[in-house]
Design brief:
The protein is α+β, with helices and mostly antiparallel strands. The chain has one domain. The chain is 27% helix and 31% strand. It contains five helices and nine strands; from the N terminus they run H-H-E-E-H-H-E-E-E-E-H-E-E-E.
Length: 209
């Protein structure tokens, strides 16, 4: 019994382990293609919901916040891998950075007990997805896209994709309907929350000031 309790505590501690703060500050970066994996890990979080009474996992989630910093590193890596010309790379970079000002995008993979309930894009999903600020303000996504067949590039750039996981792109507006920012200026963290009757998972990004 004691060994089981220690294992449970260990799993809980892993899910809640603090990660290095990241920055939402815009501006040029000097990344090269080989920096991508390091930047990916900086912007990626893992967490799980656990049914303590049933002693089993309910949901395991990995999410990458595609913020300005991540997008810059992604385009640099993508451009090299696909031999884009300088003007093609610049057009792709400017398009994604412009979108970063309007939307907060997350690449998310998950696995759970009940496959159909884990389809976040379906009405029958067991999980509500929210972006939560430090004051408890919540923003609902404006788009959830399920990737039925992730591309070869997506499998390389997002290694959390696997045979037992569903993959999604989740988009939140930078501004809520009332005009307030979904991530307020000066916020010291932001949560991506999956919540429902079966449990709750919070993935946290601490933000550097």
């Amino acid at each position: 019994m004691r060994r089981g309790a220690l294992l449970l505590l260990g799993a809980f501690g892993l899910a809640c382990a603090a990660a290095r703060p990241v920055t939402l500050e815009a501006g040029p970066r000097d990344y090269v293609a080989s920096d991508y994996r390091r930047v990916y890990e900086r912007w990626t979080r893992d967490a799980e919901a656990y049914a303590w009474t049933e002693l089993e996992d309910v949901l395991r989630v990995t999410a990458t916040f595609e913020a300005w910093d991540f997008r810059w590193a992604y385009v640099v890596r993508y451009a090299q891998d696909h031999s884009l010309l300088p003007d093609q790379r610049e057009a792709l970079l400017q398009a994604t950075l412009s979108d970063a000002g309007a939307n907060h995008r997350f690449f998310l993979t998950l696995a759970g007990q009940y496959y159909r309930e884990g389809n976040l894009a379906a009405r029958s999903t067991a999980w509500r997805v929210l972006l939560v600020d430090p004051e408890g303000g919540q923003t609902a996504p404006v788009e959830i896209e399920r990737l039925r067949r992730p591309s070869a590039a997506e499998r390389v750039y997002f290694p959390s994709i696997g045979p037992w996981r569903q993959a999604f792109r989740v988009v939140f507006p930078a501004l809520r309907e009332d005009g307030s920012p979904s991530i307020p200026e000066g916020a010291d963290f932001v949560l991506l929350r999956l919540t429902g009757a079966r449990g709750r998972v919070d993935l946290r990004w601490d933000l550097a000031s």
